[in-house]
Amino acid sequence: MTAPTVGFTVPEGQAATAPPEERGLCRDEVKLLVASPGQVAHTTFRHLGEYLSPGDVVVVNTSATRAAAIDGVWRRGETVVHFSNRLPSGRWIIELRRVDGRGPILDAATGDVIELAGGASAVLEAPLARRDGGVRLWKARVAAPESLDQHLVRHGRAITYGYVDRPWPLSAYQTVFARPDDPSGASAEMPSAARPFTTQLVASLVSAGILVVPITLHAGVSSPERNEPPPAEPYRVPRATAEAVNAARHRGNRVVAVGTTVTRALESAVDDDGTVHAREGWTDLVLSAERPARVVKGLVTGWHPPEASHLLLLEAVAGADLVRDAYEAAVATGYLWHEFGDSCLLLPLSPPSAYHTRRFHWI
Prior knowledge:
Blueprint: E1 31-36, E2 39-44, E3 57-61, E4 69-74, E5 77-86, E6 92-97, E7 113-116, E8 120-127, E9 130-131, E10 134-135, E11 137-143, H1 148-155, H2 199-207, E12 211-217, E13 233-237, H3 239-251, E14 255-258, H4 260-268, E15 279-283, E16 298-301, H5 310-318, H6 320-332, E17 343-346
Helix pairs in contact: 5-6
């Protein structure tokens, strides 16, 4: 996989260790950096609509977050198992991780059995993909006293990494758009770019003539340790969303994706001429300079670590120079990283001619 061109180091102390609510902030009071050609502005997320235009389309992900982490025992030692996505065959994609937080276990083998909390078990059947050093993701057969979804609700928890200071309830990992009752599944990790949205903010966008439309992509486990492509993930682009996106493009308005999951779904449903179609299935699309975004012309995103493959997608939408400007400004001015951190709006193109005057809120 091509490596992103943007390079940086996250200063110590700029990881968000807890939800903003624990810092006395509403969800939409996190900081928002707005990067457009030749300009970087600093505001708060609740002012997002002031940087968009009537007729723009904001596309969001309705996938809920499941309790995808559960304790287990592997080869007489403790492990944490992350459940990524359920395959059409009924098998699961899982990841074994070290309990000390030092990353994934790469030396498991076909046939290994993992005993899971609550009397469930998983048998490793085949590597999903091999890499230098071993296998991170496995296809596994799972047995549980009840449905696995119910078992994870009882015995599991949200996936967390070392920068989080303590466990948080699953509700902290749900966005305002999440549909926990979706029969097609849920995400292993929160589509976190949408976390700062509130119902009040959505109402203000709609009242300003900005359309908010859904897609669904059930995100699998991420890989914060290495430059790895994301695994294939199930997605759905509804017909109404495809029509709204196509109409916006014909008007000359922006299509703004909320997060890398939305971008991946939309770009998986687009033709070479830029027409989006209603589509569903599994996507293994990896956006990069070699396959840039065709329809997404704005991106709401969180801040990703320098080794994350998400940076390739950001560059595919906004270009390496704009992404570099945004990240340099975020590092210099103390923005917070990860799912509970601050946000960024990348606007690589000039706004439509009907664009209203922006009011910049500097903080």
